Amino acid sequence: MEKEAWLFVDSGMNTPAYNMAMDEALLEWHSKGLIPPVLRFYGWNPPGLSVGYFQKVHGKIDLDAVKRYGFNLVRRQTGGRAVLHDNELTYSVIVNEDHDKMPKSVTEAYRVISKGLLNGFKELGIEADFAVPEEGKKIGQTNSAVCFDEPSWYELIVGGKKAAGSAQTRQKGVILQHGSIPIDIDDQVLFDCFIYPNDRVKERALKGFQGKAAAINDLAGRDVTLDEIKQAFYKGFETGLDIQLEPYELNEDQLKEIKELEEKYLTDEWNYSR
Fold first, then answer.
1. How many Å apart are CA 266 and CA 274, to the nearest integer?
2. What is the pTM of this model?
3. Could you give the residue ranges of the DSSP H alpha helices within the chain?
4. Catalytic residue at 147?
């Protein structure tokens, strides 16, 4: 039987604000029936620190350090904790809530979509697993503002270390799930972007973080090219979701709409209001 066709958009490297605008635009177009479900790959230039929709910035994020490193802060439409997007592959999945493949439960939808990530890691020769809580223990109960400090339901772990972080929102009858697949992680730079009561607490948090997250180059034991990673997760999502991806180029009108929407994600009102 012929597999369902989803669009595949590789939008390359863009500003944090533009990346969030494109995810929102794709969600909007899909909600109106203008496009089928979408898998998108993208990168960040300059690197960005994305904060969750409900996350507080003031008193939590060191804005001077973010500026000093040349990063751009942007608020996501999705919840969760802050993520530093630098040397990574970022993905987003846009699909109707009523799609035959999508469970009604948020956590079960995570499981289905994350099958693409699971198979992508396998394509790279990395055996990953889904994160599930131990009996009597809840996931997501730490006070850390750092996303990769702890896995959530059905995020990907390798040897107990978090290897991909994802977040999800449901708007206008559409699921948007996007996530970060680190290629390399600089722990020190990451922790410099957060505020701690004092240096001793910061060092303790940094030491505790080491061993909790893993990047592809470390897991593979070699430097893996971005193209190789894209190919692996392209195949992984096709296999995991049992779909056929069709490369798609956005037209001029669509690009113009995204560019106009980008302005929203550049405003202090949006990014710092929590």
1. 15
2. 0.91
3. 16-31, 63-68, 106-123, 187-192, 199-209, 216-220, 226-241, 252-262, 268-271
4. yes
Q: Quick check: helix, strand or coil at residue 203? A: helix
Pick the CATH number of 4-271 from 3.40.640.10, 3.40.50.2300, 3.30.930.10, 3.40.50.620: 3.30.930.10
Q: What are phi and psi for residue 89, nearest 5 degrees?
A: -110, 125
Q: Which helix (H) or strand (E) element contains residue 10?
A: strand 4-14
85-127 pLDDT tens trace:
999 999 999 999 999 999 998 889 999 999 999 999 999 999 9
Mean pLDDT by 10 residues, the chain (274 residues): 94 98 98 98 98 94 97 96 95 97 91 95 94 54 46 80 92 96 94 94 87 91 97 98 98 98 98 88
Reduced to 3 states, what is the DSSP secondary structure of residue 151?
coil
> Which residue is catalytic, options 95, 131, 147, 156?
147
